[in-house]
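thread: overnight batch results

M.L. [08:02]
morning all. the overnight job finished for the chain we discussed friday. pasting input first so we're all looking at the same thing
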Amino acid sequence: MFQVSLSQESVQAQSTYLCLDWKRATKVCPLKANFWDSIRSGFLKNNNTTEVIEPPSTPPEDEEPLPQEFVLTERTQPDGTVEEIVFSSGGDVDVYDLQALCDKVGWPRRPPSKVATALKNSYMVATLHAINRSSGSEGNDRKQLIGMARATSDHAFNATIWDVLVDPSYQGRGLGKALIEQMIRALLQRDIGNITLFADDKVVDFYRNLGFEPDPQGIKGMFWYPRY
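M.L. [08:03]
and the structure it wrote out:
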């Protein structure tokens, strides 16, 4: 399965800005707006018209995404154990389990305290766990973190997906695609329609097949970093 490697060096060297602009049932007005206008104001450009998002009549009581958890796939192993791949958009992520997963995909290590802060301040953290259940042995289930992605957001118009990774031994099974699709659905349910990410050149086609557009209207992702 593909993954996005967002180490500092790779992001600075080659990174493509991608945007997912979803159409929604809204009031249509004969206005024109460029891409950045749409992000700032909530206008979504659709051909020659601009869709204006009507503000909710009352603010939602809970601004956080509703957590979800369900089984994506299930299969019986040769030894008789049943392996479930479980998607979750709620619950805590063990920083050291995540560090071990990052080691498997070759990402540079980051300070655990900063990783914990990033997770805490994310709008959504989605995970994939492999759970192996042995028949007739209650309480001996083995649970392993095999995938993760997170999103930051302004809680209104925009969200950006970060740190997408899948355990190499589980790649090639469509799990990365399922992880991103479920995140997109959860964001859309929160009425967030401008979804963006940064991807290495080698995985641009993967995200393009999920509906993302590279550099819409010529917009380029840019980074500032200290020059020592």
